[in-house]
Amino acid sequence: MSTDAQGRMRSWTLEPSTPTFHPPPGAVDAHCHVFGPADRFPFSAKAKYIPQDAGPDALFALRDRLGFSRNVVVQASCHGTDNAATLNAIAASGGMARGVAVVDPAISERELQALHDGGIRGVRFNFLKRLVDDAPKDRFLDLAGRLPGGWHVVVYFEADILEELRPFLDALPVPIVVDHMGRPDVTQGPDGTDIRAFRALLDSRGDIHFKASCPDRLSEAPPWDDFARAVRPLVETYPDRCLWGTDWPHPNMESRIPDDGALVDMIPRIAPTAELRRKLLIDNPLRLYWSEEWP
Ligand SMILES: O=C(O)/C=C(\CC(=O)C(=O)O)C(=O)O
């Protein structure tokens, strides 16, 4: 456990290994976060964890070390609905980062446009009770109908509430990206109950994407074989709908800090051909986050 004198946790390694796998030029790390720096961007009063600073400099140093070109910065729950830290990271990236915000559903059109101008291309609806106090589906639906053109929603939930969420997901009027595939139990294997339910969701409409991410959260320990076994068939079946991300700085993983280099080495195991990897790491994230560059 890495906690400093102020009780702020560190959930990322300071010494990631250099991966064996080299991402193709232009690859996007489509799920990562920034924390602070807290003296400029304080954490929310409702934060469920208080991390050490993990700002844009550290994020971009990791990006370069791992061989990625771009980042999608997802607003983490510890910053609540104040997206300033995320916007700061996007602004510091020189166009090489875009983001996903968390907002009060009462946000005005003008504020949404300001987020768009700052590089935001979606909003995140988080249904994890350990991270947020409430997740009002009716207000989320209303907001989803008012998003700027080209935006999508990112939804974070655990497998045990997928069925309960289905009417809400079915009603969303914009494309959906599901964080970490809705956290299936990968030990059940590729044909287990959780993956089957998730496939049913993907089959229900063509604009649902998923992040084939977080073996460290979904699997017990490296080399995360059960994750590779369960997730590779998903990437192969839905090659145009998958994204990948490090999840750095791995919020709440302070007692099982993953090695970012090992996470990158999972990529060829779930996307075994160069074409699949191009879709996973370049085409799909570009279409969602840099659509102006998409043919
Ligand atoms: O970062 C993730 O993807 C997962 C998280 C943290 C999170 O989502 C947040 O704080 O907003 C988790 O499971 O604790």
From TrEMBL:
One of its GO terms (biological process) is 3,4-dihydroxybenzoate catabolic process. InterPro entries: Amidohydro-rel, Aro_Compnd_Degr_Hydrolases, Metal_Hydrolase. The keyword Hydrolase applies. It holds the Pfam family Amidohydro_2. Its EC number is 3.1.1.57. Keywords: Aromatic hydrocarbons catabolism, Hydrolase. The keyword Metal-binding does not apply. Residues 28-289 form the Amidohydrolase-related domain. GO terms for molecular function: 2-pyrone-4,6-dicarboxylate lactonase activity. Gene3D superfamilies: Metal-dependent hydrolases. It catalyses: 2-oxo-2H-pyran-4,6-dicarboxylate + H2O = (1E)-4-oxobut-1-ene-1,2,4-tricarboxylate + H(+). Belongs to the metallo-dependent hydrolases superfamily. PDC hydrolase family. This is 2-pyrone-4,6-dicarboxylate lactonase. It comes from Brevundimonas subvibrioides.
